[in-house]
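Lab manual, section 2.4: Encoding a predicted structure.

Procedure: take the sequence of the chain (202 residues), apply the prediction step described in section 2.3, and record the output as structure tokens. A sample record is shown.
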Amino acid sequence: MMKLYDFLPSGNCYKVRLLLTQLGIPFERVEVNILQGKSRTPEFMPKNLNGRVPVLEVEPGKFLAESNAILFYLSHGTPFLPDDPWQRAKVLQWLFFEQYSHEPYIATSRYWISILGKAEEYQQALAQKRQPGYAALTVMDTHLQQHRFFVGDRYTIADIGLFAYTHVADEGGFDLSGFPAILSWLERVTLQPGHIPITPNK
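Recorded output:
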């Protein structure tokens, strides 16, 4: 059985839990509390020298880190990753966009505000995250005005990658009410078979 080293509130970890669940792959979840430094311990570091979660142990002693790399690995040969080389590259395009243009602003803001509870302490840094975060949401909304999903008008790991932090963007101070295409897409994603929330109370 695969083993997922996971921090429940993390959107990056949620991506992997969601895909594993939707693929019907059984896995053991191992909680790693990053707020207590548990991903930086001598026991954990050999699993990922970068000291971060998620980490997927695909078989004993064989570890894969980086959420979107894990999504790509798990989705190979499934409907969640197109066979067509162009569409597959488009999936990667959106996953790279998520990590470079989206996650650093929307996810980081959520982490400071809702997970650390330090909005006041990070007030200036949060203000600097606002414009690029909304710019990323604008890119997404513009695309979704013409498409039901991000690639090939079907649900893929590109949607999973972008859904993880977008659907909780309000927890980072981002207002999605001005992005109707995103809101419609979020609803479509939640209606996919096997969908699970990021935490039991979401």
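Check your result against the sample. The helical segments are 11-23, 67-75, 85-115, 123-144, 157-166, 180-190.
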